[in-house]
Amino acid sequence: MDIDFSLVLVVLVAICGFIWLLDALLFARARKEASEPGEPVIVEYAKSFFPVLFIVLMLRSFLVEPFQIPSGSMIPTLEVGDFILVNKYHYGLRLPVVGTKIVANNEPERGEVMVFIPPHDDSYFIKRVVGLPGDTIEYEDKVLRVNGELVDVDIIDEVNIETAGGLRPGVLFNETLGDTPHQAQIITQGNRNSRTQWVVPPGHYFMMGDNRDNSADSRVWGPVPEENIVGKAFAVWMHKEPGLNLPTFSRNQRIH
Asked: Which residue among the candidates 73, 215, 218, 232 is catalytic per the annotation?
């Protein structure tokens, strides 16, 4: 089960703040009048940790939050073990835990990489924005169309793609969604979807992984509602291979 660090931080900040405030209102004056030296240990800890936890909460909730990539659904753009940074204010400021938007900002654009909570799960997912509200998305025979128009593709190379059943032949290609090209890959044999067309409802976004045949995304569980948006992924800052390997900074890069 994923740990909700925002909830943990909110609870810790509230506990520390409550202890500090309670002591200031009820006990600090009494200690002073009785000439008691120092403060109780729990009050000292609360006063020390409160500002630190509060600053961390504000940074994670409203500015930048780190995430780790747990799966290969965004290969080749993001690899398993990448640590990424997510801009929490790009799509508007939201209250921690409840996610209510309090300040509007940019709307998601086609081609952006977004962190969100899918409609079927409480975990954080990361995929690419393919469909905007009102769009018609078609994906048939490994070919992507948006509103009837073929998405521009430039094949780079033939590759072997890792799957649960072993390596399978595939194709690596550049794809242009929006203004910035990005890389994606498909398996050249099998894995056809039974459903091939979707209409994105108002206030929703159609998400797909760059590793097209190894990604459970909106083709499986449907479009993502606007209120489930977490933020825009914009950089890889560290990478750590699974296991006891040391982290490296060789993959530091902006996310396209």
From this structure: 73
Residue 17 burial (10 A CB sphere; 0-12, 13-18, 19+): middle
Catalytic residue among 6, 61, 88, 127: 127
How far CA 234 is from CA of 121, 124, 172, in Å, comes to 23, 16, 22
Q: 10 Å Cβ neighbour count for 55? A: 11
CA gap 46, 21 in Å, rounded = 10
Q: Is 197 exposed, middle or buried (0-12, 13-18, 19+ CB in 10 A)?
A: exposed
Tens digit of pLDDT for each residue in 130-175?
Answer: 999 999 999 998 999 999 999 999 999 999 999 888 899 999 999 9
Q: Is 127 a catalytic residue?
A: yes
CA-nearest of 6, 118, 138 to 71 is 118
Q: Is 73 considered catalytic here?
A: yes
Identity of the residue numbered 212: R
Tell me the CATH architecture of domain 66-254.
Ribbon (2.10)
To the question of pTM greater than 0.85 for the whole model, the response is yes
Instruction: Give all strands (DSSP E) within the chain, no chain letters.
Output: 64-68, 82-87, 93-94, 101-103, 113-116, 125-131, 136-140, 143-146, 149-150, 152-163, 166-177, 180-187, 197-199, 204-208, 224-225, 229-239, 253-254
